[in-house]
Amino acid sequence: MQLHIQILPRQRIHTERWNQCVADANHPNIFMYSWALDALCTYWDGLIINDYEAVLPLPWRQKWGIKYLYQVPFMPRLSVMGANWQPTDSPAVLQAMQQHFSFIHTDIDNLVCAPWATRSRTNLYLPLSHTYATLEARFTEACRKNIRKATARGCQLAPANRVEDIILMYDNAYGGLQNTHTQRNYQSAVAFAHAALQHQKASMWQVEHQLTHEPLYTAILLHDKHRIYYWLGAPTTQGRQCRATYFFISQIVQQYSQSQLCFDFEGSDIPSVAHFYQQFAPLTETYHQVKWHRLQWLLGNRL
């Protein structure tokens, strides 16, 4: 691909053409739509290749007069999006990013970042083209046992009603483990969830007790034509005892089995979380955490 690259501020980006490029891309990432970026990013510019043949969002903040590209909370990673994008064209994109920023630290895929300091990261996903019986047979025995326990303990799937309640349950379950999730980040997550629902790209769920209808687990899933994204979910203390998370994932897998979709677990490099997801027999794909700077006067060679 002959590359002409420009970087435009958000207000100069042609929103419809940007979103069409994301929709047509050969590589799925629902977080690259403009409405998602507007909700989750403090600021973002757009790297545009050959008049919207391919695009890459560049989320940024500024500190001490230094403009830097950062890892956006509640957004797993950035992706270069385009129907004909080839990662072999990465060097020109890296050069443009280096000219635009003094410091880069983010997770990214569909881009070859070898000249930069990188760390490989893992994402797990489960193709849903087979029958549920076939998919379930590949689950570990412990996983199937926990699904049976959840059913015996009265779990049932139901729609959830309020984004804010789901975010609150997530914060109660995991907030103490997420030192980057400030109040501002949670406000952005709420805004993103509402935007996804408005664009019919999300669904809200809860696992509840059959008799009391007490919520045991809540989740927000994201949807595009390629994947179901397990964006955010959390159990209560009682939900853990009832194995509600096992039940939820099995119910969604069953609901969307024999489709061309994949269930995207959105992670994880946390060993305990990865172990839990691997019980569902997912496939693995990798992306990279990248770091680069030209602030030797301030940081030396530290990355």
Morphology call: globular
Tally of DSSP β-strands: 13
- CATH superfamily caption of the largest domain: Gcn5-related N-acetyltransferase (GNAT)
The helicity comes to: 25-40%
Per DSSP, what share of the residues sits in E-state strands of 2 or more residues? 25-35%
Count of individual domains: 2
**Which secondary-structure class do the elements indicate?**
alpha+beta
CATH topology of the largest domain, what is it called? Aminopeptidase
pLDDT < 50 stretches: none
What is the name of the CATH class of the largest domain?
Alpha Beta
Alpha plus pi helix count: 11
Oligomer class: single chain
Secondary structure blueprint with pairings:
Elements: E1 5-9, H1 15-24, H2 34-40, E2 43-49, E3 54-63, E4 66-69, E5 78-79, H3 90-100, E6 103-109, E7 117-127, H4 132-138, H5 141-152, E8 155-159, H6 163-174, H7 183-198, E9 202-209, E10 215-223, E11 227-235, H8 237-241, H9 244-255, E12 262-264, H10 271-278, E13 283-293, H11 296-299
Parallel strand pairs: 4-6, 5-6, 11-12
Antiparallel strand pairs: 1-2, 2-3, 3-4, 6-13, 7-12, 7-13, 8-9, 9-10, 10-11
Task: Please characterize this protein's 3D structure.
- This protein has 303 residues and is α+β, with helices and mostly antiparallel strands.
- Helix content is 34%, strand content 30%.
- It is built from eleven helices and 13 strands.
- The chain has helices at residues 15-24, 34-40, 90-100, 132-138, 141-152, 163-174, 183-198, 237-241, 244-255, 271-278, 296-299; strands spanning 5-9, 43-49, 54-63, 66-69, 78-79, 103-109, 117-127, 155-159, 202-209, 215-223, 227-235, 262-264, 283-293.
- Strands 1, 2, 3, 4, 5, 6, 7, 8, 9, 10, 11, 12 and 13 form a 13-stranded mixed β-sheet that branches.
- The longest helix is centred in the middle third of the chain and has 16 residues, at 183-198.
- The chain is globular.
- The model has no long low-confidence stretch (mean pLDDT 93).
